[in-house]
User: What shape does this take?
Amino acid sequence: MTFETIGVDELLRLLASIALSCVLAVPLGWERKRHSHADVGLRVFPLVAIGACVYVFVGQQVLTGDRRNDRRGRVSAERLGQSVRT
Assistant: This one.
């Protein structure tokens, strides 16, 4: 496996995505904290949003170019095979 460096534009896109995910998750966490007695709220929702954002970004960076198309075709074939059998 070879590692490639990410460019400034990709880094800015990642930071903007993380900021946007936090901005969208904070109101959800705030409402959950206000209307529930659970301890889940302002801390958990943004952390989950950031984790999901970084997970998707890493997945996009790992599967690039020809490997992405090869993997996509293989996954589609597996889904088709599974849906035909069930």
